[in-house]
Specification:
Blueprint: H1 15-35, H2 42-49, H3 55-61, H4 64-87, H5 93-110, H6 112-123, H7 134-155, H8 164-184, H9 190-205
Length: 206
Amino acid sequence: MQVQVDLQPELGLSVTEAARRAQLISVTIAAIAELGYRRTTFARIKERAGLSSTRIIGYHFGTKAGLMQAVVTTVLGMKEKFLQERAGGTADRGEMLRAQIETEVAFLRDCPECVKVLREVAANADDPDGWSVAGPMLKDLQAGQIERLLRQGQRERAFGKFAPEVMARTIVHAIDGAAEAFAADPSLDLDAYASELVETFTRATG
């Protein structure tokens, strides 16, 4: 299944050019999810997109780094939209943490290609031709979001006393564990898994 990317025309781009960029990003996401980061080359993207030349990719993104930047920012935008649609309706910090964990785990099930892409890009951050900031950014982004939520909750006395940075990284590692378990066993009940994580961290942060 190929992820459908819906991009608004960027400044200076025609509707046709924006549609081509969206197609190439979508094809690249699918290729990385299926083949892995290292095997996703301009040549393979050209074949999958039905292009006559790899120069068309270069025209739109310049280099592999430019393409990876577009792919990562697109996937992160899709993830943020997914989380906001499911976890954006409350101001209660405890409920926000619960929703964050539940939706992070649901994202593993509902958007597996996006999850694979983020993991593949982060795992290949040493690629000299790739987007060099992707690795550190992906490593810190999720933990940073959760840490800010925990700190705000502590200020509002919604949470107890603990080190927010340690707790945030522990939660991220637990979600990563869910991803690994699901990859090993696709029949895993992720709703039940998420409920266990929620109960564990509700007690830990209370």
